[in-house]
Each structure stands twice: as structure tokens, then as C-alpha cells.
Amino acid sequence: MDHDVVIIGAGIAGLNAAVTAARYGLDTLVIDKLGAGGQVINVDRIENFPGPAEGMSGFELGPALQMQADEAGAEFALDSVEKLEKIEGGFRIIGSELNLTASAVIIAAGSSRRKLGVPGEAEFEGRGVSHCASCDGPLLRGKSVCVVGGGDSALDEALALSAHAEQVRIVHRGERPTARHSLVESCRATANIEFIPARTVERINGDDGGVTSVTLLDRNADTGSELPCHAVFVYVGLEPNVDFLPDGIELAPDGRISVDLTMESSLSGVFAAGDVRSQSVAHLAASAGDGVTAAIYAARYLKTIKVSPSASS
């Protein structure tokens, strides 16, 4: 085998798994298509992970964890994994460029942002439709923006956008946002943030210059209206990244990987950590714990199949 363990995904779960696996003496490779931190690198301020009281940015946290993993001896590769196969004695991981083997695999591939699936969304992607407030917020100074979604991510991004945009309107399906109480209160206390409840976005409108408005449906009155805005930030949930998995891995009804308490999947030797696994609470600190657990039990698994650390290559 090329490696003792290959970790697919360099988000918080994957990086903590890498630190732990490497410290256990395992020949460890981390593969990710985005780089250290995964999607968290786009978050302006992280408050649900142990650290400074004032929080930190994802751009700081990701590289810090990668440095720990690198110092522990883990290796990193930038690639998109397209297929995972069970082979005799281990697994084959096939990427757009890489083709390698491992005795055990930890899947920490995370999730991708769910799309609205409405007219105009694809057309105006990158021209007003965005998923990154820290990237595009500074370009919207003095303008009106719309954030779609009522969860933690949506409200986090709304707060980040409020520092740049003149007006931030949060459109969400329910009567109340589902984000944690502290975030809701912070948004309510911010003068240029407004909640628009019980609405769904039916269409994103625009012209050659980009987004100009969204068409909303009032879920209570079944009537439509136009909301002028210069950009739409979509945060309506996540889809687990599991397209590359072999058929032998059992998935939960929500499409995430079913695991036991050791983070092992139904396919022996394959572990899952973070929000790609079933029953995840989608909290960064919990994802970090998942990664540590998966790495420890991967090391124990390798002992049971008599693969000694750093001897599989």
C-alpha cells in the first residue's frame, strides 16, 4: 500500500484526523480539492471552535491546523477524489490526477452548499449570486443585498455583509430563523439587517449588469412580490459529498455515511468524520472530535489487520 491512511478532505475534521493519525505514527496523506480548512476558510469569524474569546477567521484556523498536521508528519495533496474502490488488502483512491492505495481511509469530505434551484440562479452565479460574504462583501459597499436562509451560516454571513452593504435582508422560509439565539439577537441588534420571514425565493432577476431583484412568495398569503437587491447570498443547507463512494457503504436516509461510535462505516477500514457522517451536529468542535476519534480507531484497525504504522508503503 502507498499509505497507511488516506484522509479525504482537509476541513476541520480531516485536519484533526491528520494530526492524530500522524502522531500515532501512521503514514498519512490528506487529499482536498480546496486546500487547508475546506469551506471554513471563507468564514470571517468562527465562534463555535475552542480558541480566542474574540473568535478567529477560517483563513487563520485552516492553515494553523495544517501546520500542526505537517509538523506531525502528515503529507498533503491537492486533488478532487472521483472514486474510492475496495481492493485486496486495502483501498484504491482515484482522483483527477492521483491514483494511489491505502490500508485505511477516513472520509472527511464535508458537504457542498445546496442550491435554490430557481430561475436565474445559475445565470447570475458569480454576477450577483454568491456563497462567500468575506469574498464579495467588500465589493458591495453601499448596496442592498439579500441573504437566503435562516440557519447559523446565513446569519453569520449577514453579519459579515452588514459591515459593507447599506442594507442586508435575510429571507427565510419559517416564521422564525433556526440559527442559535445569540446570532439571531446580534442580527436584530444590527441596524442595517432586516428579517423577512415566511418567504421563499422563486426567481432571481437581473440584466447585463448582474442581479437587480428577487421574486418572493409569501408562504402565508400565497402572493408574490419583488425585493430589489444587488446580490443574493444563498445558505439553504448542505448536501454531503459522497458521490465517489463505493456501493458497499451504507448511507443514512439524509444521504450521509452511517457510522458506529468508532466512526467506522459499514465497510471495514473506511471511517467518516464531520458533517459527511450521519448524526453529525455540524459543529466545528464536534467535527474536530470526530476526526480524532476516526484516526484513533483507524490506527487500532490497522493493528488488527497487522499493518504496522508507516510500514504499509
From TrEMBL:
Protein name per its UniProtKB record: Thioredoxin reductase
Matches recorded under Gene3D superfamilies = FAD/NAD(P)-binding domain (3.50.50.60)
The UniProt record lists the keyword Oxidoreductase? yes
A Pfam family: Pyr_redox_2
Keyword Flavoprotein set for record: yes
Q: Where is the FAD/NAD(P)-binding domain?
A: 3-287
Keyword field: Flavoprotein, Oxidoreductase
UniProt source species: Aquamicrobium zhengzhouense
